[in-house]
């Protein structure tokens, strides 16, 4: 009896301790503050897209660009997506935020097409909540229609996780997106778990080899083996391959030798504000 009373007191004590853990309270508070700031930020137009060029390995010709969101925070300066995307995802803010990204990217694509700068597809990252939301395909179609841009101007980046969920449903959505002319890429390929059957059956145009493998090239034998295997597998399924996070010419040389057709990374260019990306295109 005495023992169990002691146990109760202890466990309650532990629970109380957890409840008042200052670090936890701070984290919860930070998330709340950020949530209300994110809503305001959307209203005040504080988000911006940066664009990272994607080039063909053979001749470094521009073949696309990835749109990457940043938050121009009034006090904290430029914030990167890792700081606020997870909060937005928890709070369902990711729907309006993702919709903003889509429209802004398509708007930029329209401008560049009109100016004769590039007709290459602009890559847009999707969140799970977005891809799974009701009416997602219709929302994409509406943005394209309203902006007067063909689906060919858009590439959607999905994670392996998003493609694994419910094969018939994913298949249905991807088929409709493909019918609009939109390209489908699998982001951060190799970091999640993915079934070969999904990769084979889904209408996927491109796999993006994750930076974590690329950064260890060419010296790390395991990374080299994985990269080689991804390229061979994608090619045998009729899909193309882009390596992300390419930083050195040695990485580029290895990827070129292995037949990786496209590159993206700081070696080519860091992500750039729209105006700087336009200058980059005029220069190259
Ligand atoms: P991601 O889609 O894999 O994007 C690539 C990330 O690698 C970007 O970081 C890019 O700046 C960075 N990167 C590119 N080349 C290099 C390089 O050579 N070296 C290094 N060290 N890094 C490089 P960023 O912009 O911070 O984005 C991080 C992640 O945030 C993205 O990973 C993506 O998952 C997510 N994200 C970005 N924008 C959006 C968005 O609009 N919507 C959603 N849902 N997620 C987004
Ligand atoms: Mg991406
Ligand atoms: Mg990626
Ligand atoms: Mg990545």
From TrEMBL:
Domain EAL intervals: 31-284
Protein name: EAL domain-containing protein
Organism encoding this protein: Caldimonas mangrovi
Full-sequence portion shown in this chain: 510 to 793 of 793
